[in-house]
Design a protein that fits this description.
352 residues, alpha/beta, TIM Barrel, 8-stranded parallel barrel, 3-stranded antiparallel sheet, 13 strands, 36% helix, globular
């Protein structure tokens, strides 16, 4: 992190978290943030579900919900970025305050509730994005929808021509009863609808499923079975957690999903269990608590073909993605791996 980024981050950390978030997006869109450019090497270059990535470190959904800073984010050193979540119709989300910075825990709690400008507005911006790294969109459902399963398909129908991959997000804890769509029958029907829309696109894109970290072993087995049978292209593990174990911050009792450092162990254990259940038949993307190159490496060794982060940027700045990618390159070289794919799953036993 250079001096300019360090000073800007220090200023943002003194402000209300949601205001800070909004200001950071505006600064990016205005070209005021130093960018790392593409970070890659023969070891880092990866292919996940047919997507060619210069490195396996991605930006998780939630940072740029409305696709207003796509071009600069594509030059920030990530190997891919995920935007959204988008819902068919615009919605304001939950009342403020709805984002809480847990500095002592290097974590955050949010209860945004899929606030976004709607799929049409987001798709219009995505249609103008430049070529470069893969850009995906997190698909969501409107809070007041009569058919939430259909909402996911509708967002893909609107945005599909302008994205490189789509993620079905049934794991946000901030939309009432959304996580019920992770059950076997509901999930199978939902994915079938989304994949039918994908098949009708002029350029069908990979579809991923994002799951919660709070699933019981039997529930995780069901999800793995449905995912393998459905024809989706991968699983993102995991979203935020409702657990509050071991937190120090006075804000730890706020309702919402917890992300950041405290989620690392829980999400990595779910990832490794999923890697065993799917046995290499589906690529996995590891998310949850990644803030260092070593943690990204542990996710890969636990079964992830790629990794995403978001909350760590609050404390480490936007350049953290590029720093982690470079550090991962060194770790792969240290341990004699010729590429990321060779390291995937090499440490599953440490987490199961």
């Amino acid at each position: 992190m250079n001096l300019i980024e360090r000073a800007g981050l220090a200023a943002l950390l003194r402000l209300d978290p949601e205001l800070s978030h909004g200001l950071s997006i505006r600064a990016l869109a205005a070209g005021l943030v130093p960018l790392s450019g593409v970070v890659t090497s023969p070891r880092l270059a990866s292919t996940v579900a047919g997507l060619a990535m210069p490195n396996p470190i991605g930006l998780a959904a939630g940072f740029d919900k409305n696709a207003v800073a796509v071009a600069p984010l594509m030059r920030a050193g990530f190997g891919h970025i995920e935007l959204g979540a988008a819902t068919p119709r615009a919605q304001p989300g939950n009342p403020k305050p709805r984002l809480f910075r847990l500095t002592e825990d290097r974590a955050a709690i949010n209860r945004f509730g899929f606030n976004n400008e709607g799929a049409a507005a987001i798709a219009a911006r995505l249609a103008r994005r430049p070529a470069g790294i893969p850009v995906g969109l997190n698909l969501g459902a409107n809070k007041d929808s009569a058919d939430r399963a259909a909402d996911f398909a509708d967002v893909l129908r609107i945005s599909g021509p302008h994205i490189d991959f789509a993620t079905v997000n049934v794991s946000s804890p901030n939309t009432e009863r959304l996580r019920e769509l992770q059950g076997r029958a509901a999930l199978a029907a939902l994915l079938a609808g989304v994949l039918a829309v994908r098949a009708a696109l002029a350029r069908p894109v990979p579809v991923f499923l994002k799951i919660a970290p709070d699933l019981a072993p039997a529930e995780l087995e069901e999800i793995a079975e449905v995912a393998l049978a459905s024809g989706i292209d991968g699983i993102i593990a995991t979203n935020t957690t409702l657990a509050r174990d071991g937190l120090k911050s006075a804000l730890s009792s706020e309702n919402g999903g917890l992300s950041g450092a405290p989620l690392f162990e829980k999400s990595t254990r779910v990832l490794a269990a999923l890697a065993r259940l799917t046995a290499g038949r589906l690529p996995l993307i590891g998310v949850g608590g990644v803030g260092t190159a070593e943690q990204a490496y542990q996710k890969i060794r636990a079964g992830a073909s790629a990794v995403q982060l978001y909350t760590a940027l609050v404390f480490g700045g936007l350049s953290l993605g590029a720093e982690i990618a470079r550090g991962l390159d060194a770790l792969l070289a240290r341990d004699g791996f010729a590429n990321v794919a060779d390291a995937v799953g090499s440490g599953i036993a440490d987490w199961t």
